[in-house]
């Protein structure tokens, strides 16, 4: 409707989960990293959760694009099916020619296919979106699928994607729950990311710089959407429409307000928990007070490092050994490094890369040292995941200084993140 006016090839804020528009925000990137990591490790089960409209289906589509050349992928977008229907759907989506009708026949055909693919060295991935809609029986059926394995490894990697209440459903199925080794919960975009997200989508839709959103407009969009991509799309689409009717390509706060008003409730669309979720929340609160006592003997950080095997939060507390590369004496010291100050039990540093091979990590740390960075390696053992060697830059006793340095390093190392390091091993 307004595309021509703005010189766009298509609508930039459509509500479809089109991977072409995918914006790699910090959380979306971390989510994909987690899933990818689990697949490489052949972890069997992975869980991705997030609120309504946060981008779960979009990630499914991105994964499908990313993986289908290399792996065999089946994607179930709506699992409200019977057990036989679900199996048939999976069999068909993998492209298996099967005349199976019963559960046993379908599972036999699937198993045969998985073994063939395994022999060809090709991994098979099953992605299930909207997994919060799976019944307990279907979840049990999916657990049984994950039992298809050779003596050495799983034949199928399963990614369950759904809303937060999926966690509650899974808690009823201890056998399945325990098998999920990697979990990630998507959070909304931050304010700065909302701005980049909007311009990214405009550019993909063909904008060539003619459309501007004022700072005030951006702030309002963030306020109304709380960083949820679907809500950002809704508001931006209406704001562009409002701009079009006012014949302006400059989207202001007033236009955003008008757009939000036209969406009702001033655009403040919030997530309403389902009745099931509400009931469970009451139980969860009771449970939480009990767990509080237990938590006193467990630090929050230890808990995180156990719950989240790979990197999820930018806090690392796993008791890591710090191996200083033999000749990692800094050539160009980072300004804020506090090496000579009295030593605390821990310090902050910036993790720029991580390797499973110590040799690779050492080689990389040396190269960075030669480039003038103060480098270290920490060895971290993550339960059920294995040992990783992290390449770190800088030592800071103050987290704020480390975060500032992280910001600077991000230009060269987009993956950079601040961690806390136990001093013990130095
Ligand atoms: N990272 C992203 N980059 C670009 N667009 C995104 C991103 N994340 C979400 N969106 C957009 O937000 C909208 C909602 O995304 P999506 O349908 O994937 O959400 P969802 O989490 O699956 O929602 P639901 O819980 O309702 O299934 C879509 O228009 C999608 O294009
Ligand atoms: Mg979805």
CATH topology-level name of the largest domain: Rossmann fold
CATH superfamily annotation of the largest domain: P-loop containing nucleotide triphosphate hydrolases
The quaternary organization reads as: single chain
Approximately how much beta-strand content do the residues carry? 15-25%
Continuous helix count = 16
Q: Which ligands, by name, code or SMILES, are bound?
A: adenosine-5'-triphosphate, magnesium ion
CATH class of the largest domain: Alpha Beta
**How far from one another are the termini?**
63 Å
Determine Rg (CA atoms, Å). 24 Å
Q: Helix/strand/pairing class, anyone?
A: alpha/beta
Summarize model confidence as the mean pLDDT: 79
Q: Provide the helix percentage.
A: 40-55%
H/E element order: HHEHEHHEHEHHEHEHHEHHHEEHEEHE
Anisotropy-based shape: globular
Structure description:
Strands 2-3-4-1-5 form a 5-stranded parallel sheet, sandwiched between helices. It is of the alpha/beta class and 426 residues long. It is globular. It is built from 16 helices and 12 strands. It has 3 domains: 3-13 and 189-267, Orthogonal Bundle (Helicase, Ruva Protein, domain 3); 26-186, Rossmann fold (3-Layer(aba) Sandwich); 305-422, Alpha-Beta Plaits (2-Layer Sandwich), CATH 3.30.70. It is 44% helix and 17% strand. Helix 4 (83-93) packs parallel to helix 5 (103-119), helix 10 crosses helix 11 (229-245) and helix 11 (229-245) packs across helix 12 (253-262). The longest helix is centred in the last third of the chain and has 21 residues, at 275-295. It has helices at residues 3-6, 26-40, 56-67, 83-93, 103-119, 136-146, 165-171, 174-179, 191-204, 215-225, 229-245, 253-262, 275-295, 300-307, 358-370, 399-409, and strands at 45-50, 72-76, 124-128, 156-162, 180-186, 212-213, 250-251, 321-323, 346-355, 375-382, 386-396, 417-422. Magnesium ion binds at residues 56-57, 129.
